[in-house]
Amino acid sequence: MSVSLTREEVAKHNTEEDIWTIIDHKVYDLSDFIDAHPGGSVVLAQIAGTDSTEAFYNLHRHEVLQKYSSLCLGEVEGEKSEIADPQPGDLSEVPYAEPLWLKPESASPYYNDSHRRLQKAMRKFTDEHVTPEAREKEDDGTFISQELIDKMAETNVLAMRLGPGKHLHGKNILGGVVDGKEFDYFHDMIVGQELARPAARGFQDGNMAGMAISLTAVQQWLWDEELKQKVTDEVLSGKKKMCLAVTEAFAGSDVAGIRTTAELTEDGQHFLVSGTKKWITNGMFSDYFVVACKTAKGFSVLLVPRSEAVETKLIKTSYSTAAGTTYIQFDKAKVPVKNLLGREGQGFEVVMSNFNHERWMMCGGVIRWMRLVVEECLKWSHQRIVFGKPLISQPVIRQKIARMISLAESNQAWLEQITHQMNNMTYAQQSKLLSGPIALLKSHATRCAHDVADDATNIFGGRGLTRGGMGRVVEMFHRGYKFDAILGGTEEILADLGVRQAMKQMPKARL
Ligand code: HEM
Fold first, then answer.
1. How remote is the C-alpha of 510 from its chain's centroid?
2. Fewer CB near the terminus (10 Å): N or C of the chain?
3. What value of ipTM does the predicted structure carry?
4. Boundaries of each Cytochrome b5 heme-binding domain copy (predicted)?
């Protein structure tokens, strides 16, 4: 931006037909924009020729200026812009907006340089490629584009979603920022937390969450190596999509109550799967379904390919249909016996051990959201003027923000502690020892999210109830955190699971 203009020159453009204004020491010509302005023409005519910085930031997010940068004529002579202008990949400078380990002055026992490199690359990738599509799809409710899936496949962002493992060995991850063999659960956490930042909760699940929670089960439990490799290659290359189909209209968290059946054919070569599934994330566009069902030997899990015997219908929930939440009917879907995950009758173990990574991932997401909301509240309460003063000058607002910060920080600390345990345990040890702590963390994190959403909405007032604009993130969080509280096991079920796991380990201790 080379043009330099004086405040006197700006002041001359002060009629309805000729509107210039100054925002953050930059000059904008709004003359041709006036009819397109969502806030109407009158308000713009009122500020023609003046500095409207305060009025602007009282009503708009900074990103509005980034989007309409073409309206900017130049800078005010001798003045410099003061408002932070974040670029793709940047860390936020707002206190508590980033986890402590990302602050240059803070030390952490958990993270090394490869974590830092991955965070940087993931932030840039997300800002540039995921966020724009996430916002668009969240609003129009359509599903993720093949173009974005391909980009995530090429860079191995898709593969990272499964967590550490052989599927990452030898892979070029985001241009080589981390060696697949070094990839651990902190890398995994970073990927998940960065992908939550676009603040589009429906799209966040629409962005291959189904794959992230089902291909993990295939990795661990599908015995047929050839089939496992084929499915893994198809899905991680983005050619095929998959989802986890456990819950039913008949049974939610009560997994044992499911009614979908799988009957062996007379020749013993196939199962015929019949029944329904409900609230299945990504089901609409999935080619494979990891299905919990009942066989003659009990609760079992099968990998069911899409066929004419599989019917999928979109369910509208309170977040965007971009998540592809689905009602599924299987009508004698024919599945080879080699598609069994684990042994027949071992389904409970398959589902329960697979839940650990899913729940832990959800904790990472919702905790990152809390932090985003803290950032929104800190920014808003500094820029919003009420009773002639910034909102932050009200002690009651500072009390709310103090609590929100504490909840975000304490949850992140617990998450990191559990993640460290995961790094030092086998899959089997995690299943045995961490299902309780992970369940308790998820239950606790979403209870805290409830408090954060509640306080943030009160801070934002009407804007906290309005989609888009200033309250965009807070409104979405208030509407969206419940998905974390329900999906993958409700708060109550998980709290109970956590205590029951502890009961199993109780010694014969007496007071
Ligand atoms: C570069 C200059 C401006 C641009 C590009 C712009 C753009 C927008 C946009 C996109 C919205 C929709 C809400 C949102 O997405 O945030 C909006 C709303 C609005 N704008 Fe502007 N605007 C500008 C300047 C101003 C100024 C200087 C004023 C008044 C002093 C103003 C008053 C309003 C009002 C009252 C609304 C409705 C806010 C609400 O519903 O809460 N705008 N503007």
1. 44
2. C
3. 0.96
4. 2-77
